[in-house]
Amino acid sequence: MDPGSCTAKPYRDNVAYKIGDFCTISTDHPDWFLLDANGNRIKVDGKYFLMDPGNQEWREFWLNRTRESQEELGWYGVFLD
Q1: The whole model's pTM is what?
Q2: Taking a C-beta distance cutoff of 8 angstroms, is the pair 42, 34 a contact?
Q3: Cβ atoms 78, 14 nearer than 8 A
Q4: In a 10 Å sphere around its CB, with 0-12 CB exposed, 13-18 middle and 19+ buried, how is residue 7 labelled?
C-alpha cells in the first residue's frame, strides 16, 4: 500500500505496514512489484500494488512479516485469497 508519503503510517491490512516500508521497497526492491504489459506497476483501488509472488525475496519478506504479525497480534492462521 502506498500511504501517500514515506512518513505516513500504512494500514495494517498488508505486510508492508511499518512507516517507510513502501518507500524502502519501492526504491530498494523495484523487482518485487508486478508489472503490466507496458512495464508499469499494477495498482488496485488507487493505492494497493500487486507484488510478484514468484520473487523469492518478496516471499521471504512476506513470510517474516506474517510471522511477526502472528506473534504480535495472536493470529491463529492466515487466509490467502
Answers
A1: 0.87
A2: yes
A3: no
A4: exposed
Q: What is the 3-state secondary structure (H, E, C) of the chain?
A: CCCCCCCCCCCCCCCCCCCCHHHHHHHHCHHHECECCCCCECEECCCEECECCCCHHHHHHHHHHHHHHHHHHCCCCCCCC
- Under 8 Å between Cβ of 21 and 10: yes
Report the Cα 8 to chain-centroid distance in Å: 15
Distances 65 to 17, 35, 36, 41 between C-alpha atoms, Å: 9, 23, 26, 22
| 25-45 pLDDT per residue, tens | 999 999 999 999 999 999 999
- 9 class by beta-carbon count within 10 Å (0-12 exposed, 13-18 middle, 19+ buried): exposed
